[in-house]
Design a protein that fits this description.
68% helix, disordered N terminus, 437 residues, 2 strands
């Protein structure tokens, strides 16, 4: 009886890690906001907080072909929360309150994704201490801290994709109706936030179909085609209805549709696919700990960003543009991840095998995608970083249980937290000195 109760209580231990990350990211978000960092784009590791904060807070824009329902899904929630809390802040104008609520979106999603990593590890049979360590490693990686502190779409997608991994683990427990509803709703949300993530989420569904029904290839293709059509119809329907409500159909207006949407895809194609393909493994490791970023001169357009006060930006550049000894340090996580996935494919079976397959799918898809598109590899790291951490589960499961193993894992995760806090604190402390007006 006591062991069952302990197991039930252990589910909530991950909230402590998520809460710690939430407080870290909220503190950072409001500091960056008050320093005027969100009045322009690209300053924090290539993120776009100006347009995204407006989209989250007021519902302007971000109904593009790439992010068809980003504003439509996020802004109504922000508006409702702002209305609920408006009596608590009677002196704050509604638009100002909406912007402050919008600053919570990425931190909350970062915290939820961190908790989901913990829950996935527990469900996959990892003991409590290593599971907590994995959630700490994910939550307090530099990729999660940085993009969890600025208004952008990345951590929303990361959270939703972790839900897909969790569904893989529990699909046998769902009734047929709940199974269909869950995958349809989740895939629709994922597609609405970032359309390219349809590939990994549909891939997860295909893996889920195989493990749940043990169907042949033909049945799986039929099921995948059906959910693809269903999600496509729902995405377009929601896009049309909510765009009508917001009176925003810029994405399909003549000229604007190409320049702002299709043209942006062409603009971000890689100028050196071989370089980016070879750089991806380094970037996977860099997402855990990036070291001190480069500082580059980046003069923002006065016409677009009237309040911009900085002409410098923090970047993690493509690593093969300047290889040094520390670059090979970033290969260590990739080697460890590869060993873990090898163990998962050769030694694991049952419910963990689909999880390993899904992680391999996510990593491979992003490697291929960003070989040819994206340019700023680190910017997209939240789309795969959660999978890189979840992919360590097979290795953790094969480590010998005992106090020595637990202490080693805790010390490793604590060291990562310390190193990333040093990097992030240096960035926050340096920002005021970069202001030019």
């Amino acid at each position: 009886m006591s062991s069952v109760m302990l197991k039930d209580k252990s589910v909530f231990f991950g909230f402590l890690v998520g809460l710690g990350l939430l407080l870290t990211c909220i503190y950072s978000a409001f500091n960056l906001y008050h320093m005027g960092v969100f009045d322009q784009e690209n300053m924090i590791l290539g993120g776009d907080p100006f347009m995204r904060s407006m989209a989250f807070a007021y519902g302007y824009g971000e109904r593009s072909l790439i992010h068809p329902n980003l504003s439509n899904f996020v802004n109504p929630v922000v508006r409702v929360i702002a209305v609920v809390f408006s009596p608590v802040f009677p002196d704050l104008p509604m638009k100002a309150l909406q912007m402050r609520v919008a600053l919570w979106v990425s931190p909350v999603c970062a915290a939820l994704a961190t908790y989901m990593v913990y829950l996935i590890a527990l469900t996959a049979g990892v003991r409590v201490v290593p599971a907590l360590a994995l959630s700490v490693i994910y939550g307090f990686s530099i990729s999660t801290i940085a993009y969890g502190s600025i208004p952008d779409h990345f951590l929303i997608s990361a959270f939703l994709l972790t839900l897909g991994l969790y569904l893989l683990l529990i699909n046998a427990k769902l009734s047929d109706r709940n199974y269909t509803v869950a995958w349809t709703a989740l895939t629709t949300l994922v597609a609405g936030i970032t359309i390219s993530n349809l590939v990994p989420i549909i891939g997860m569904f295909a893996i889920s179909e195989y493990t749940r029904k043990r169907s042949g290839v033909g049945r799986i293709i039929s099921s995948v085609s059906l959910i693809f059509v269903r999600v496509g119809v729902l995405t377009i329907f929601l896009w049309a209805c909510l765009n009508w409500a917001y009176q925003d159909f810029n994405a399909v207006q003549s000229g604007h549709a190409y320049e702002k949407h299709i043209g942006r895809i062409a603009l971000h194609t890689s100028s050196s696919p071989i370089r980016d393909a070879l750089s991806f493994p380094f970037t996977v490791g860099q997402a855990f700990w990036g070291g001190n970023p480069d500082i580059e001169r980046d003069v923002p357009s006065v016409e677009l960003f009237e309040k911009a006060r900085y002409e410098s930006s923090f970047f993690y550049n493509t690593l093969l543009t300047h290889v040094n000894l520390i670059s090979f340090f970033w290969l260590a996580p990739v080697i460890i991840l590869g060993a873990s996935l090898f163990l998962g494919f050769t030694r694991e079976s049952g419910k963990l095998k689909p999880l390993v397959m899904a992680v391999a799918l996510i990593m491979t898809f992003n490697w291929l995608l960003h070989t040819f598109w994206g340019n700023e590899l680190f910017l997209f790291s939240p789309h795969w970083h959660f999978a890189a951490v979840v992919g360590l589960i097979p290795l953790v499961r094969f480590l010998p249980a005992g106090r020595g193993t637990d202490i080693s894992i805790v010390l490793l995760s604590a060291a990562l937290v310390f190193m990333n806090f040093m990097v992030w604190n240096n960035i926050l402390q340096m920002i005021p000195s970069l202001a030019v007006r």
